[in-house]
Amino acid sequence: MLHEHTIEKLYAMKLNGMAEAFAEQLQTPDITELAFEDRFAMLVDRQWTWKENRRMKRFLKNAKFKINGCVEDIDYRTPRGLDKSLVMKLAGCDWIQNAHNVIITGPTGVGKTYLACALGNRACRMGYSAYYLRIQKLFQDLAISKGDGTYPKIMKKILKAKVLILDDLGLAPMSAQERRDLLEVIEDRHGLASTIVAAQVPIENWHENIRDPTIADAVLDRLVHNAYKINLKGESMRKLRSNVTNNNDPGK
């Protein structure tokens, strides 16, 4: 009965990992041969693992990734100019610790979004929070928030993410308000947190998309100069995989 009360108290204190480990120890006959310090260390290790796993799951849920990508599943066989050694370096997440950025450019379908989400997923598994937004969704959310009074809350959420993924930059020229919003987001995060940008247009054409030389210079100065740059090439991977599927169709 005493043990049951102890387990109940552990759960009440949200020490679920420790409670589960303690219950398992009670079912292990030889556990008493270990010293108290060793048994206690096992309980603490289980609690630590439980807490870290719970935090990782929360990070992955809150990130709202468009694609459930993983760095372990990245395709290097399809020729598209992807440097595996660079991806493995980014998977170590030192760039996040140093508040550096990643810029992924390339035509439609070459895997920019997948790669960005895979790096974000890796960040979450390494203990960093992440948040995915299409650039137009960012602009829409900020525009709405200015009307309903939630602008400070949204900006705080964006700033809080250790890795912010801005996808689909360059699909349409920016309005005056959109480019100011982009600059504010980049300015607030500069030197404090990392940003991944996935863009269809090359970096040298961003001035044309932003449509204001002064703001474009400010954005590039804060975003590009300390960024790892990945320029993907080749045909759409969706198209290539569709062709493979059709060619393997026994009816063709």
Describe this structure in words.
- There is one protein chain.
- The chain has two domains: 2-62, no CATH class; 64-240, Rossmann fold (3-Layer(aba) Sandwich), CATH 3.40.50.
- It contains twelve helices and five strands.
- The protein has helices at residues 2-12, 16-26, 36-63, 84-91, 94-97, 112-125, 135-148, 151-160, 176-189, 206-210, 213-223, 237-247; strands at residues 101-105, 130-134, 163-169, 194-199, 227-231.
- The protein has a five-stranded parallel β-sheet with strand order 2-3-4-1-5.
- Helix 9 links the parallel strand 3 (163-169) and strand 4.
- The termini are far apart.
- The mean pLDDT is 91.
Task: Write a brief caption for the model.
The protein is of the alpha/beta class and 252 residues long. It has helices at residues 2-12, 16-26, 36-63, 84-91, 94-97, 112-125, 135-148, 151-160, 176-189, 206-210, 213-223, 237-247, and strands at residues 101-105, 130-134, 163-169, 194-199, 227-231.
SSE topology:
Layout: H1 2-12, H2 16-26, H3 36-63, H4 84-91, H5 94-97, E1 101-105, H6 112-125, E2 130-134, H7 135-148, H8 151-160, E3 163-169, H9 176-189, E4 194-199, H10 206-210, H11 213-223, E5 227-231, H12 237-247
Parallel strand pairs: 1-4, 1-5, 2-3, 3-4
Task: List descriptors.
single chain; 252 residues; alpha/beta; Rossmann fold; 5-stranded parallel β-sheet; 12 helices
**What is the CATH class name of the largest domain?**
Alpha Beta
N-to-C span: 70 Å
Summarize the biggest pleated sheet: 5 strands, parallel
- Please tell me the overall pLDDT: 91
Tell me the Rg in angstroms.
23 Å
Broad shape: elongated
Please give the share of residues in helix.
55-70%
Count of discrete domains = 2
Kindly report the CATH topology of the largest domain. Answer: Rossmann fold
CATH architecture identity of the largest domain:
3-Layer(aba) Sandwich
Strand content: 5-15%
Going across the major beta sheet, what is the strand order?
2-3-4-1-5
Query: Which class best fits the helix and strand makeup?
Result: alpha/beta
